[in-house]
Amino acid sequence: MKIVDAYFMQSAQSITDSPSPDVAEVAFLGRSNVGKSSLLNTLTNRKGLAKSSSTPGKTQLINYFNIKFKTNEEESEVPYLFARFVDLPGFGYAKVSKSLKKEWNKNLTQYLEQRPSLQIFVHLIDSRHPHLPIDDNVDEFLNLIKRGDQIIINAFTKIDKLKQNDLSKLKRDNPTGIFISNLKKKGVEQLEKAISEYLFGN
């Protein structure tokens, strides 16, 4: 199962102005500057699909992308399957007003807790800082709200910046994690496979 097409659908401030929840969704969330936009672009093989910002926390909206998967079976009755990737605003931003931050948090929490089509949480974690309190808090929150039909994937980014010993320790400490380098395209196919197998089966 491979991603063969991806395009931007729409942005929304909250679930009230989000698209109809008629397709399975995969939410990508992580601290600002964790490499979320780069990963989305690499995963979909679309260089400018997700826009990254030089200012952490500038992306304030929930961005929806339609994703087209092609099945491996040549004679399949359903050659293509569809899902939606959702790029959520980075958390941990500093230079925003308290009132704006409160509103973002409310809208994000509402999406994460109440969106019926949300099937997978992809929590991106900087591999150089795997246990920052903010990431641990997000993990705890996701495990608290997760429904029985949802899974959490912890994807550790920027592994090309780690020494081999540190990477080996990270893998030992996180046996279910996926370890990604956008630069060297490591772990991207593994993430694509984990997503497609959960959404569509083998």
Word description of this protein:
By secondary structure, this protein is an alpha/beta fold. It has one domain: Rossmann fold. The chain is 31% helix and 26% strand. The protein is built from five helices and seven strands, in the order ββαββαβαβαβα. Strands 1-3-4-2-5-6-7 form a seven-stranded mixed beta sheet, sandwiched between helices. Strand 5, helix 3 and strand 6 form a beta-alpha-beta unit. The longest helix is centred in the middle third of the chain and has 17 residues. It is globular.
Brief summary of the model shown:
31% of the residues lie in helices and 26% in strands. The protein is of the alpha/beta class. Strands 1-3-4-2-5-6-7 form a 7-stranded mixed beta sheet, with helices on both faces.
Features:
202 residues, Rossmann fold
Shape: globular
CATH class: Alpha Beta
Number of helices: 5
CATH architecture title: 3-Layer(aba) Sandwich
Straight-line N-to-C gap: 8 Å
Strand order of the largest sheet: 1-3-4-2-5-6-7
Radius of gyration: 16 Å
CATH superfamily: P-loop containing nucleotide triphosphate hydrolases
CATH-assigned fold name: Rossmann fold
**Biggest sheet descriptor:** 7 strands, mixed
The percentage helix is 25-40%
Question: What would the average pLDDT be, to the nearest integer?
Answer: 89
Order of helices and strands: EEHEEHEHEHEH
Class by SSE composition: alpha/beta
Number of domains: 1
Show unreliable segments. Answer: none
Count of DSSP strands: 7
Bin the strand percentage.
25-35%
